[in-house]
Amino acid sequence: MIRNVLGSVIALAGAAAAVLSPFQPWYDGRLGRDYRIQDLFGGITGAHAAVMTSILLPFLFAALVTVVGVLLRSRAVVAFAGLVVLGFTVLWMVRQGQAAGSLSVGSDGTGLRWGTALAAGGGLLLLLGSLLMSGRPAGRGRRRRGATEPYPVPRDDRPDTWPPTQEPGPAAQTSPWPEQERDPYTGPDPRDREQYSGHHRGQDTASHPTGDEDRDERDRGDR
Questions:
Q1: How many domains does the chain have?
Q2: Which of 17, 90, 101, 193 is deepest in the core (most CB within 10 A)?
Q3: Burial tier of 13 (Cβ tally within 10 Å: 0-12, 13-18, 19+)
């Protein structure tokens, strides 16, 4: 927060210096607003320009971009405004050097003047302000979206089925006691087979008497 405030103040000061510079002498007592924009591309001439067709126009555009960048807290927008101011200032210096043969700073009011210094200083302040600004927090939008749903429901990709199908594997044990092991042999017990056979043999003997018993019964009948 402090970095944004400090960077915004410095950027706005740089934009104000850039806008004020065309109203100051730039070279040999000539004001910056007297230079036409087309002179920066075709060569410096002695013709005077109107205010809105002078070098003041790109500086006003840079100031407007700076205000937008400060409101949006965008470092890139503020840095772009600084590059516009520095670009037009350097371009003017190149054209003025070509027209005068050289650039100089004289103590008698000739050569480069305060207007040029204000324009160059304003562009540097704009770049410095963009570097000091921390910009907009990256996670602000995510926190705002997360506030509507603080406890997101985990996604379940499995289809809803009823009744629920049991997963393959051993049967679930619901009793607290350990389950008894099952006898792996599922056939009849051989001992049961022997007892069953002996029991039937006894019944056959009782129901079918032997030959001696048959003769005794016939003798009893003859008597």
A1: 1
A2: 17
A3: middle
> What is the chain's pLDDT, residue by residue, as a tens digit (223 residues)?
888 899 999 999 999 999 999 999 998 888 989 899 988 888 888 888 888 889 999 999 999 999 999 999 999 999 999 999 999 999 999 999 888 887 777 666 677 888 999 999 999 999 999 999 987 776 554 455 555 555 555 565 555 555 555 555 555 555 556 555 555 555 555 565 555 555 555 555 555 555 555 565 565 655 5
150 within domain boundaries: no
Would you say residue 89 lies in a domain?
Answer: yes
CB 46 within 8 A of CB 168: no
Cα 115 to the center of its chain, rounded Å:
45
Asked if residue 100 belongs to a domain, the reply is yes
Backbone angles phi, psi at 119, to 5 degrees: -65, -45
